[in-house]
Specification:
Structural class of chain B: mainly alpha
Strand order of the largest sheet of chain A: 2-1-3-4-11-10-9-6-7
Strand content of chain B: under 5%
Helix content of chain B: 25-40%
Radius of gyration of chain B: 17 Å
Shape of chain A: globular
CATH class of chain A: Alpha Beta
CATH topology of chain A: Rossmann fold
Number of strands of chain A: 11
Number of helices of chain B: 2
Distance between the termini of chain B: 41 Å
Largest interface: A-B, 22 and 13 residues
Order of helices and strands of chain B: HH
Number of domains of chain A: 1
Mean pLDDT of chain B: 93
Mean pLDDT of chain A: 96
Radius of gyration of chain A: 16 Å
Largest sheet of chain B: none
Oligomer: heterodimer
Strand content of chain A: 25-35%
């Protein structure tokens, strides 16, 4: 399985996830500049975190018009796995590969902290090997991560089992305290209808080596493992 | 309607705290000023509307967008 990490001007988590895929998981991985990306060369793609195009206008909107996104759309239709992390999630939203919106955090501040994330479904390419209800310890780092959608959209997400991750508190409960950015329904990650496109605000690449985590967490690997096998 | 924390803070901590109790809500937004080459106002509005919708200048899930035209002789 060969995976591409698509780099946009302003991406800054690209090298972190490259390290995890290449050195920790030992997956064949390329860093690809967004104007050079060709879908047929890869079996999967990652849209990394960062501040593509300086978050101008809205986080993710300008990158969503990059030629790379046309290629990502082709991959999505072919059923190949695509994951958008943080700014990558914002790009997937703005390119309408995923529904809804990511607005400024309820706190009006940038939030960088380790949070508890509950896996709500294992019926996705990325959570297939994780038991439903598992709590993952993974950090978030964003200013615009408050997931919002219209009532019909929320109903559809629930009915189609597209809510993959939710923020929870230390006890694993859905509470206000456990929801750092005020996301609707405590949503931290969703997938598309075909279940192969996944966007999440938490950074699994920052929770992939125990030595780098204050909680000795390597929970991020449980998600990124998806790229090990086709 | 999605909550607007910036607007809520302006309402509570600036306007209401400053003594203007009759102002109960503020919603913040973004303002883009575009220069458009067009013969008529209607044409300019059509161009801007088309561009805003097709390039997703706003996210229709949570934002509304209104267009005001001001003509200027070149």
């Amino acid at each position: 399985m060969k995976t591409a990490i698509i780099q946009f001007p302003g991406s800054n988590c690209d090298l972190d996830i490259f390290h995890v895929l290449k050195d920790v998981l030992q997956i064949e991985t390329d860093l690809v500049w967004h104007t050079n990306f060709k879908s047929e060369d890869y079996d999967g793609a990652i849209l990394p975190g960062g501040f593509s195009y300086g978050d101008y206008l809205r986080a993710g909107i300008i990158a969503a018009h990059s030629p790379a996104i046309d290629q990502v759309e082709i991959m999505a239709q072919e059923g190949k796995p695509i994951i958008g992390i943080c700014n990558g999630f914002q790009i997937l939203i703005e390119s309408e590969l995923l529904p809804g919106a990511l607005l400024s955090n309820q706190t009006r501040t940038f939030i960088c902290k380790w949070v508890n994330i509950k896996v709500e479904t294992n019926n996705t390419d990325f959570t297939r090997n994780i038991s439903e209800g598992t709590i993952l310890k993974i950090p978030i780092a964003h200013a615009e991560g408050r997931y919002t959608i219209d009532p019909k959209g929320l109903k559809d997400l629930r009915e189609n089992d597209q809510i993959v991750l939710r923020y929870v508190d230390e006890n694993g409960n859905l509470t206000k305290i456990g929801n750092p950015n005020g996301s609707m329904d405590s949503i931290a990650g969703i997938c598309n209808n075909d279940r192969n496109v996944f966007g999440l605000m938490p950074h699994p690449e920052r929770a992939s080596e125990k030595i780098l985590s204050p909680f000795s967490s390597s929970d991020g690997l449980k998600i990124l493992n998806r790229f090990v096998h086709t | 309607m999605a909550r607007d924390p910036e607007g809520e803070t302006i309402t509570r901590d600036l306007i209401n705290r400053g003594g203007f109790q009759s102002i109960t809500n503020v919603r913040t937004g973004k303002y883009l000023k575009l220069s458009v080459k067009a013969e008529k106002k209607e044409e300019a509005e059509h161009i801007v509307r088309e561009m805003s919708n097709s390039l997703r200048i706003y996210n229709p899930v949570v934002h509304t967008c209104s267009i005001r035209i001001k003509s200027e002789e070149l």
